[in-house]
Design brief:
The structure holds 2 protein chains of 2 kinds. By secondary structure, chain A is an alpha/beta fold. Chain A has 2 domains: 140 residues, 3-Layer(aba) Sandwich (Rossmann fold); 212 residues, Rossmann fold, CATH 3.40.50. Chain A is built from 14 helices and 17 strands. Chain A is globular. Chain B folds into 2 domains: 250 residues, ABC transporter involved in vitamin B12 uptake, BtuC, CATH 1.10.3470; 39 residues. In chain B, the strands form 2 sheets. A two-stranded antiparallel sheet of chain B has the order 1-4. The two termini of chain B are 57 Å apart. Classes of the chains: A alpha/beta, B mainly alpha.
Chain lengths: 419, 400
Amino acid sequence: MKKFISMLVTAALAVSSVFALAGCNGTQGSGDQGTTPAVTGGDETDETAAPAADFKVGAIYINSQNDTSGYTFAHHKGITAAMEQVGLDPAKDLYIVDNVPEDDEKVKQAIDQLAGNGCNIIFGISFGYINAMDEKAKEYPDIIFSHATGYLSNDTNFNNYFGRIYQARYLAGIAAGYKSLATGNNNIGFVSAWGTEYAETCSGINGFTLGALSVNPNAKVYVYEISTWGDQELERQAAETLIDTYGCGVIGQHCDSAQPQIVANEKGVFGCGYNSDMTTEAPDAHLTAPIWNWDAYYATAMKAAMTNPATFMTEVGIYYEGLNAGLVDIAPLSKNCEPQTAEAIALAKDLMTKGEWDVFSGVKLSFSGDAGSVTVAKTDAALKTNEGAEIVAAGGPSVEDSVITGSMNYYVEGVTQVN
Amino acid sequence: MRKYHLVRRSNPRMTTTILLYINGLLLSLLVGAILLYALDIDPFEYYGKMFTMGLIGNKYGFKTIEGLLKVFVPLLITSVALSISFKMRFWNIGGEGEFLVGAICASIIAFNSTGMPNVVTIVLMCLAAMLSSGIIGVAIAALKVKFNTNETLMTLMLNYIMLYVIRYIGETKADWNFFLRADSERPKFGTFPDSAIMGGIQIGKFKLLWAVIIAIVLTAIVYVYLKYTKRGYEINVVGDSSATAKYAGMNVGRIVLRTMFLSSALIGLAAALTVSSAGTISDTITNDVGWTGIIVAWLGKLSIPAVFIISILISILQYGCQAAATSYPAIDSNFADLMQGIILVFALIADFEANFKLVETAEAIQRRKERKQKRIERKQTVTGKAEKTAEATKEGTTNE
C-alpha cells in the first residue's frame, strides 16, 4: 500500500512539474511577442496592453454563456459582438456571473464580484434582477447599471432597456396570415410562456394577431399558455394540442426552444419561431421568426459609458427602440412563405421604421394584391379587446409605451386563450 | 473467489492521512488543469484566482470576505446540526426542508416587524425558526420512534414539499401574500424592513455580522454539549447501539426525539440568521447547505472541530470557484461546480484510502500458501530426481 501511495505522490509531482514548466514557457512566449524588448515578465506586458482597453464590462446571466440557443445566448452574442464593435476584447474585458437565479441576495453577490473585478458597466439580463440592481446602483455610484426588461432607473447610473418586439411579431403575423389564407385554414395557434399576466407576452400575442388580421381578417389566434419561460416537453405538448384539437395550421410561439416549430414540421403545418431563425430545426414548416439584435443596444450603451459615464443617462437613458434602431427584426423569410409575404412585410416595416404608423393604434393596415403588386391601405378602426372593450378610438394614437411594457393585460379581438 | 477485501485501518496515521489528502487535491487539480488547457486557459492563473477567491487586485476585497462569511455561517451551523443527528445514526437528510421551514417562519415575523426594535425582531425570528424547524424534526423522529418509519425517506421528501411550498409562496400574487413586493406587478419576494435586518460590528469598511459570532459560539457550545454532558454521551451510546442504550436503562425514544429537535432547531436557526443577513427570502436561500452539510459532516467524521475547519474550506472552495469563473468569459458556473465536484470526489477517495486498506482474504492467503507449498514440494521432487540421476551417472562413471 505504501508503495502505491508513494507512486501516486511521485506521479502527481512529476506531472505537476511538467505543467509548471509548460506554464513558464507560455508566459515567456507571450513576453517575446511584446514589442518592447526591455520588458521582462508577463505582468508588465499586461500593463502596457491595459490602457488601450481599460474598460471592463460585467454581465449577469440567468442561464449560461455557453448555451447554444435561447435568451441568454442571444444576449451573450449581443454583448460580445458589441464589444468587438467598440474595440474591446471579449476574452479579456468581459466578466460574467452566470446561472444567477432571480434571488436578490444572489444578484447582489454577483454585482459585488463584478464590481470587485473593476467592471465599469454591469448588464443584468433578467427581469427579477431589478430590485437588487436598483439598490446596488446607489452603493456603487461609479458603475453604470443597465437592466433588460425592467422599469426602474435613476438619474445618474441606472437605466433599463428593451425593444419593440411586438413590431417584429406583427411582421411575423403577416407571414402567418398569408399562410392561413393560402391553406384556407383560419386557425392559428400560439404557444406562449405566459398569457395576460405578463405585458411582454400579452403585447407579443396581440402584435402577432394584428399582423395576421391585416392579411386575413377572418384569422383566429388560439393561445396555449405553458406558465413557464421554457420547458421543452410542455412546449411540445402545447403545440400538439393546438394542431390536433384546435386544428391550427400555423404555430407562433413565445417560449425558449424550437419544439413548437419541430412539432409543426412533424405534423405538416407551418409556424413562426422566436429569438433565432428556426428554419434549420423546422425546414418545411418555419416561415420567419421575430429576432433580437441586442448588439444594437449594447454597442450604444458601451460607447456612451466609455466616452463619459457621467452623461450616460442623458445620452442613452431609458432605451426602448424597435425596427428603427435595428434592435428587433425578423429572420430571413424561408421558402415556405407565400409569395406576397416579402412585399407586404417590407411595406409594414417601412411605415414603422419611419414612425408613420404603429401596431397598437386606432389605424389598421390591410394588405391586398398579388405578388408584385401588393398594396397597403390604412383605415381608421378602433382597437378593441376580445371582450369588446375599446382601448383606442378609431383614428386615435398608439397606446403608451408604459402600457405596452408594463400593464397591457388584455387580448385584442381575434385572440382566444384555450387553457 | 474474492482475492482481496477492504479492512478498516485500526489506527490511521495523521501524516499519511494528510499526505493522502494533499495527493487527492493535486490529482483533482490535475484533472481540472487538463480541462482548462483544453479551454485555452492557464491553469496556474486560474487556480491562483480560485484559491485566493479573486481577492488579489479586487477593488472591494472586503465584500468578498463578507460574501464568504454569508456562505460560511449557514453551512457551519447546518453541518454541526447534521453531525449531531448522524452521531445518533439518525439519517437526517432533510436539512434543506428544515432550513426552508425555518426561513419561512422567520420571514413571517420579519415582514410584519415594521417599527419593532431590531434586537427583539431578530430574537423572535430565531425563536420562530427554531421552533418550527424543531417541531418538523420531532414529528419525523416521532414517526420513526412510534412506527419505525424510514427517516431517510421522510426527511428527503420533506425537502421537496418545502421547496414547492416556498415556490408557491413566491409565485402566488394575492392579498394574503405579504411575502411579495406590493410595488411589483409580477410576483417577486419583498425585502425585510430595517427592523429585521442583521446588524454587525463595523471594522473600517468591513462589517462583521453578529451571525458569524453567534455561529462560532454556538459551535463551541455544541462541542461541549456532545463531549462533556450526560446528554451528549447518551447520543453517542444510542448511535453505537440502541440495544446497549436500552439495556443501560436509557429512554431511547426520548433521546431520539430530543436530539432530533435540537438538530432541526439548529438548522432553523441557521435559516433565521441567513434570511436576516440577506434581508430577504427566496427559493434558493438555502444555497444547498442541507446537501453540502452532509458532505461536510462526513468529511469531518462528525467531529465538531473538524466540521468547523471543513466548513471554512468548503466555503472558500465554493466562493473561490465562482470568483475564478467570473473572470473568464469561457468558463461558466457549470465548470465551477464541476471543479468543486472533482475536488470533493478526490477528497472522499483520499479519506477512504486513509481509513481502509486492501487486504488479501484468508482464503486467498490460504491458497497462496498451498501453492507455495506445492511449488516447494515439486522443486524437491525435481531436485530429488536430479540428485538421483546425478548419483546414478556418478555411479555409472565409477562403475566404468
